[in-house]
Amino acid sequence: MRVFAFFRRLHRTQRGASLVEVLLAIGLASILLPTLATALVTSRSSRAQSLQQLQANTILRETNEAVRSVREKNWTAFAVNGTYYPSVSGTAWALTAGTQTANGFTRQVVISDSQRNGSGSLVDSGGTVDPSTKKVVTTVSWTTPFAASVSSTAYYNRWLANAVATDTTQADFNADILTNATTTNTAGGEVQLATGVNWGSTSIVGSYNITGSVSGLSVAVSGNYAYVGYSTSMAIFNITNPAAPTLVGTYAVGAAVNGITVSGNYAYLATSGLTNQLLIVNVSNPATPTLTSGLLVVDSTAGKSVAVSGTYAYLTKKTNSLGPEFYVVNISNPAAPSVVGTYEANADLNAVEISGNYAYAASSNTSRELTVINITTKTAPTLAGAYNGPGTGAGTDVVLNGTTAYLVTNNNASAAEFYAINIVTPATPTLQGSYEVGGNATGVSFAGSYAYLTTAVSTKQFIVLDVTAPATPTLKSTLNTTSTLNAVAGTAGYAYVGSADTAKEFTIIGPGSSGYLTSGTLEASTYDTGSSVAFNYLTFSATQPASTSVKIQIATNTDNATWNFVGPDGTAATYYTSASSIPYGTIGRYFRYKAFFTGTTSATPILQDFTVNYSP
Amino acid sequence: MILLYKKRLTAIGSKGMTLIEVLLVMGLMSIFLVMLTGIFTAALDVRSQSQSSATVVQDGRFILARLAYDINHATAVTTPGSLGVSGPSLVMTVGGSTYTYALSGTDLKLTDATGTESLNGGDTTVSSLSFIKYGNAGGDETVKIAFTVTSKIIHAGAADSQTFSTTVGLR
């Protein structure tokens, strides 16, 4: 009964507890089932997430490769701060502004400045911006199943195809502007200080023996060429190497060439030819001078000299009773010269020079050795004035230097043969100073502060006068060439003379040396890199004996016009004295360097080569 | 004894509750069973799916890594020949020998100096393999790679498949 009672109680209790159990079960289930479900879902979606991550990394890799490729193509176009995404343009990668979302992935490339500290290390902030390094942050992000992203940060430099600009051969250096410096080619091309000239002594530097027994009569120099008129023809010499002038071309006249002037592509010859006193020869190709035209003036005496100014040539002749000696020839069309005006001098006009509206002629009229002709009106030249030298020697040659005319004459028994004449007022030329040659003077030329005279005096056919002060021409040196010299054309470094010596018709006379100049510069010709580049490093080879030095400054710009030469600290006060890196902000398209040479009269530094390395 | 049983039976039956209880239990049981079966099926499904997906991801990752390594080390890519031209195979020079990546049937095969080997496992197939070169004339080229890896393990009536695409440049 007790047992039964227990069962009855239990039964009662059971009936009450079953609902609790159900609730408990539901409660337990509601806790466990979501956990289970979550675990299930998580396991599925984390797999999806890991797949997304793999895909994102492939996109990240592609994006970075595209960035590399774009950087390789053109740094300047690449190095623009902003947000981009890669795209294919034609067959190459390009960066397009903005971000791109494709297949659930958003990608972007953020290009920004990088900064470096004083020691050149990259820093996040507080440094100076390095224009040759860009910070690139690439990000690929996605939103399903969970929002996440992968990204990479890289610093890109200009690096590919670093290029160099080099000056090393003599031709390279010859393209540069040399001041008191000169190029040589003893070891592949170098630059060194030039030697100073000292006209206190002179010597024959080089000569050329023209075929036949002829005599050099007239000389003109233009650029690298000397034009020499002789008894039968005109010869053109390359005088790049004064020690060994080389014959380039010859034009056969068949008569003596008494005067030569070169202007533009033409050589104007005053000849003894009885059919053509004026010849116009095209010398644009010095190897093959060709006749453009010839002009016969009314009478048959020899042409003596010719000068060109503007579109007119001025021809002077030996005197002739039949016609004038001074002709104004219109050469605006060199193929068809025409006489527009004449002047009757009644004397030989042996030489002529033009300055402004006046022609200055050396005349055989012994009361007008220097005859000044007004050529304002081309059709009617008139006598403007004259200088009457003290003797009876005919004027033989004249050369102008500003407001001074230098006139030489044939022998005057008791007077000078060289005159410095003031021509400030062309109507009244006045004597400034003179020099006694002691015989017939045949030619005169002027360069720098020196007058070069050729003479027929047996012991001193060549004379150098210092005419720094025209009032007191002073002798610098004389040279005995053993044969009469007929004409001279001078430069600061050399005198080119036409000689009666049939073995040296063309002779080059040079001065003695005063040793090396003590300072000089080389300013390089512009190097165009083609685009904005960073200059990295410069190196140069130089031989620097004791007490000599070579220092370098560089200049870059983007306008090819502003040249500020600076040293390693970015100012003009410092110099590169050895191979050195260039400050990393040196950006530009055009580059020049300037070398400063310092030496002594007995020692010169020698610059063998210069190279600058740059990153496009 | 029989009487007692009858009495008890009568006592219970007279209440009319036990049947409801049984029905309740059965109902609950069936709900649980359905849910458990569902979970079990899902777990099985997940297992097969993750197996299939894992092989796809594993092979995809391996092929990508291998291609990236070889292209990075290549000195020249000879096929595809020109920039912008797409092709089904990749021929390049790596360390003096020629490497050829191409499909052979449904396998991606690499042929190099040592022979030919398959880059995907036995559980996957590779299809839609394409290579296209982009880059700058005279510069380091980049090769855009695309391929699809498909699992041979079928679940839910479909095979897992993934397309991979990336670009690798020469160095």
If you had to describe this structure to a student in words, what would you say it looks like?
The complex is a heterodimer of chains A (616) and B (171). Chain A is mainly beta and 616 residues long. Chain A has three domains: 36-157, no CATH class; 163-192 and 518-615, Sandwich (Jelly Rolls), CATH 2.60.120; 205-511, 7 Propeller (Methylamine Dehydrogenase, Chain H), CATH 2.130.10. Chain A contains three helices and 45 strands. In chain A, strands 8, 9, 10, 11, 40, 41, 42, 43, 44 and 45 form a ten-stranded antiparallel sheet that branches. The longest helix of chain A has 72 residues, at 2-73. Helix content of chain B is 41%, strand content 40%. Chain B has helices at residues 2-15, 18-73, and strands at 74-79, 86-87, 90-94, 97-104, 107-112, 115-118, 124-134, 142-155, 158-169. The chains are: A mainly beta (616), B alpha+beta (171). The interface between A and B is medium-sized, with 32 and 37 residues.
Query: Do you know the CATH topology of the largest domain in chain A?
Result: Methylamine Dehydrogenase, Chain H
Mean of the pLDDT scores of chain B? 85
Query: What composes the largest sheet of chain B?
Result: 5 strands, antiparallel
Low-confidence stretches of chain A: none
N-C termini distance of chain B: 98 Å
Global Rg of chain A = 44 Å
Distance separating the two termini of chain A: 110 Å
- Number of folding domains of chain B? 1
Shape descriptor of chain A: elongated
Main sheet record of chain A: 10 strands, antiparallel
Radius of gyration of chain B: 31 Å
Q: Which second-level CATH architecture of the largest domain in chain A applies?
A: 7 Propeller
Helix content of chain B: 40-55%
Q: Assembly type of the shown chains?
A: heterodimer
Work out the count of structural domains of chain A: 3
